[in-house]
Amino acid sequence: MTPITLVRGLGLALASISTAALAGPVGYGAGTTGGGNKTPVNVSTLAAAQAAIDAYSGSGGLVLNYTGTFNYASITDVCAQWKKAAQTLQIKDKSDITIKGANGSSANFGVRIVSDSKNIIVQNMTIGLLPGGEDADAISIEGDSSGTPNKIWVDHNTIFSSLTHCSGAGDASWDGAIDTKKGAYDITYSYNYIHDHQKVALNGYSDKDTANSAMRATYHHNRFENVQSRLPLQRRGKTHIYNNYFNNVSASAINVRMGGVALIESNYFENTKNPVTSRDSSAIGYWDLRNNHVGSGISWDDPGSPGANATTWATTQAFGSTGYSYSVTAAASVKAKVIATAGAGTNLAE
Q1: Is 118 exposed, middle or buried (0-12, 13-18, 19+ CB in 10 A)?
Q2: What residue ranges define each of the domains in the chain, with the CATH number in brackets?
Q3: N or C: which end of the chain has fewer CB within 10 A?
Q4: What is the DSSP code (8-state) at residue 147?
Q5: Annotated active-site positions, please?
Q6: What UniProt keywords are attached to this protein's entry (predicted)?
Q7: Which tens digits make up the pLDDT trace of 54-98?
Q8: Can you tell me the distance from the alpha carbon of 183 to that of 59, in angstroms, rounded to the nearest whole number?
């Protein structure tokens, strides 16, 4: 298939790739400041990071500078990981926190933001090959009966696992990379590099997760390569998905379900199966498609019933205004820009 750019609607195009440091979140997570200008607390282990969070009052500002490293080459059998206990840094009912990885750092634990936690930044972390199977999301944002996280910014992280499906693990050799569940809202996922991972971004815990109707999330300038599905899997709510790069997606990319609506704008797709679809739920979702670049290697399969594929790249429901200002890179330039800027260790380039 010859690469084409599908043009629907209007957008502001940036002619060149900028590598300036990112000033702050754009999108539904705008206004997130985390721990602000508090003096960073250096931590090099999961235990030290958890102790600092547990000792923190819960408001006023905490900045953790994570300096630890993990040797991923020490994992000689990736299929032993899912049988191990999950390792998770938890933020629960606490706000105004930044967790920032130092350049060159790496972690073998996830980050869980739960309950009445807000104004949280997770930035520049490298997280890979987590133990714990279905109990081990790399970054999980989840509401509960005590509250719902909001104003969250997940930015410039690198997350990976393995495409190996391990015997006995079912579909949970690895769990989510960036998951949003049970009412969490006003979140921006930006400039993350997620690769060699199976289930990338769950957005809505299940078809019965009606709390997700209030969800609003922005995904921009993320790099998704050598992955299986959920980019994101959206149940209910609203997402704005713009200027992301999708390559080597083996099952499905953006999967909008249960009445959810997605604005899918100026993304770059290549070598992707079912790039925009609605499948595997009891009700379909809808999309507003604008200015996406559709490269070679695109394929489709039957979405089942009820289901739909965006094979003609036509809008099925207008999204309306996002309610915020943003600048859009021309779709044909997204691949180069995102490869140059996404992930940890790029000095937060944009």
Answers
A1: buried
A2: 4-341 (2.160.20.10)
A3: N
A4: B
A5: 230
A6: Carbohydrate metabolism, Lyase, Polysaccharide degradation, Secreted, Signal
A7: 999 999 999 999 999 999 999 999 999 999 999 999 999 999 999
A8: 21
